[in-house]
Write a structure and sequence with these properties.
With about 190 residues, the chain is α/β, with parallel strands linked by helices. The chain folds into 2 domains: about 1-125, Nucleotidyltransferase, domain 5, CATH 3.30.420; about 130-180. The chain has helices spanning about 1-5, 10-20, 70-80, 85-90, 100, 110-115, 125-155, 160-180, and strands at about 25-30, 40-45, 55-60, 90-95, 120-125. The chain has a 5-stranded mixed beta sheet. The longest helix is centred in the C-terminal third of the chain and has 32 residues, at about 125-155. It starts with a helix and ends in a 5-residue tail after the last helix.
Length: about 190
């Protein structure tokens, strides 16, 4: 896979050394390409020798049609958690809230926690923020559409209201012209 080949052998060995040497966190997400192929993207967060947190992309694993928590766990065991030292050094697993990742009994996080009893599972803050913003935007759009519909019905079904709207628009245009005269136009 091209993405795995782009990570130089030296960088990959450095990440692996850090997983063996000290505590680390795994950031795991399921992604798909434009052709519908699924992948498991894995990044590793660890502390360097000056105690600065470092996050590095580690691996992209092609998924079969099976992307259950059981299969994701098998892949994680095969590619990362194959040594007892790595299991002992793993502190947290950070994922989105998808059922294959976070389901209480059958998700990846619970399966890893069964093998690594000190594991913390964290919902990825980027995914949380995205969900919050998506929800907020949907509400704002819905509210704006509702307001526009209300304004439209208020002014379109009554000649009196329509005349009042025309007066407001005319006054606004006059105010706009007053302000535009205050600023010099051109170069």
């Amino acid at each position: 896979m091209i993405s795995n080949e782009c990570i130089s052998k030296i960088i990959k060995e450095d990440i692996e050394k850090n997983m063996e040497r000290g505590y680390f966190h795994l950031i795991v997400d399921e992604v798909s390409d434009k052709f519908g192929n699924g992948y498991l993207g894995i990044s590793v967060r660890f502390f360097d020798q000056t105690c600065e947190p470092i996050t590095k992309f580690y691996k992209l694993i092609k998924l079969s049609n099976d992307s259950t928590g059981k299969e994701l766990h098998r892949l994680l065991e095969e590619h990362i958690l194959f040594s007892s030292r790595r299991k002992n050094n793993l502190i947290s697993l950070i994922t989105d809230g998808a059922s294959s990742m976070a389901a209480e009994y059958k998700g990846l996080a619970s399966r890893v926690a069964n093998k690594v009893d000190h594991l913390f599972w964290l919902h990825c803050t980027s995914h949380c923020l995205n969900l919050i913003l998506e929800n907020a935007c949907n509400n704002v759009v819905r509210d704006i559409v509702s307001i526009v519909k209300e304004i439209s019905s208020t002014f379109s079904f009554s000649n009196i209201n329509h005349a009042e709207l025309q007066i407001i628009q005319d006054n606004m245009e006059r105010e706009e012209k007053k302000f535009s005269g205050l600023f010099r136009q051109g170069g």
